[in-house]
Write a structure and sequence with these properties.
alpha+beta; 21% helix; four-stranded antiparallel sheet; 196 residues
């Protein structure tokens, strides 16, 4: 009986860990969100001109440099960046210490150059350790949206303003995870009471 509870607790801890960490290696941690939803986001449809927000949190475990880059793997660039660094432009964070953390935000819209298909957006983070002179890279897809051949009719933000995108709904994944965890613990507690 005790082994079942221990296994259940470890499984829950593992599931919660997976919902909060995007990617991790020995040099750092990278988390990402698309319109508030944990990466990697799939099954999203957006219209041409529909604004979206990408947020990336980078935490360094080493003393060194951290280079952050937003990329699109396709030849045709499907998105225009309204706020944040340009695509394929490195954001250099030099001589940072272990424990350093920063949040990067991009606001972008599909520009109509690519439609009726998926256009993934990736994040690439390179950590360079000054002590060992070694590099470690974390790279993954934040979102893989399907761009519809329809024009967005809502307000499109310009630099300095915001508009909430319609059509995409962010899921409160950490909240759902917490509900699942609490429900499972209550179920285990009830199960244990029945056995006594």
């Amino acid at each position: 009986m005790k082994y079942r509870i221990i296994i259940l607790i470890f499984a829950l801890m593992f599931l919660n860990f997976q919902t909060t960490v995007g990617a991790e290696n020995k040099y750092g941690i990278v988390k990402a969100w698309f319109n508030g939803e944990n990466a990697t986001v799939n099954a999203v449809q957006i219209k041409i001109g529909e604004p979206s927000e990408l947020k990336v949190e980078v935490t360094s475990k080493i003393n060194g440099h951290v280079f952050v880059e937003l990329t699109e793997p396709g030849v045709t660039k499907a998105f225009t960046v309204l706020e944040g660094s340009k695509q394929d432009e490195s954001i250099d964070n030099l001589k940072i210490g272990a424990g350093w953390s920063k949040i990067f935000v991009w606001k972008l819209i599909p520009n109509g150059a690519w439609k009726n298909g998926n256009a993934p957006i990736n994040i690439l983070v390179q950590f360079h350790d000054l002590k060992t002179k070694n590099d470690e890279i974390i790279q993954f897809t934040i979102v893989n949206p399907y761009i519809l051949d329809e024009q967005y009719s809502g307000a499109v933000p310009t630099p300095g303003t915001t508009a909430s995108p319609e059509g995409t709904q962010a899921k409160a994944v950490p909240f759902l995870s917490m509900i699942f965890t609490v429900s499972t613990l209550i179920l285990a507690w009830c199960w244990r009471r029945e056995k006594k």
